[in-house]
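Hi all, posting the design record for the shared folder.

TITLE: backbone redesign
STEP: 1 of 1
STRUCTURE INPUT:
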């Protein structure tokens, strides 16, 4: 058995809730694509960014864990950190756009119409 497998698994376990949210979000955005195409498109992009961010974060943590004894200067990894922050920003922006995206007006049912409610 590979000796780095437990390390990789230990780094991936804390990210499992985020992974579940990303996968559930992708499934929901694909299932709502016919009803709300614009919102579903933005949600798909946002949750795909979240999924990519999780994978890159685990890879980054794994790289640091296996290379912790190296005296190499880590300033060359600045671009990776910057990319992760930009990806996180893109995730939040696209999910926020999906939340506030214009949807067709739904016709309220009589049970939900406040004007016809008796006092």
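Okay, here is what came back for every position:
SEQUENCE:
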């Amino acid at each position: 058995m590979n000796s780095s497998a437990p390390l990789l698994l230990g780094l991936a376990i804390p990210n499992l809730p985020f992974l579940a949210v990303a996968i559930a979000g992708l499934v929901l955005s694909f299932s709502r694509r016919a009803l709300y195409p614009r919102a579903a498109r933005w949600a798909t992009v946002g949750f795909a960014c979240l999924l990519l961010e999780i994978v890159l974060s685990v890879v980054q943590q794994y790289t640091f864990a296996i290379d912790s004894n190296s005296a190499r200067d880590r300033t060359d990894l600045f671009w990776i950190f910057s990319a992760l922050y930009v990806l996180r920003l893109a995730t939040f922006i696209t999910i926020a756009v999906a939340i506030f995206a214009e949807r067709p007006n739904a016709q309220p049912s009589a049970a939900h119409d406040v004007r016809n409610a008796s006092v």
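COMMENT: The chain has one domain: 11-68+75-102.
Let me know if anyone wants the other runs.
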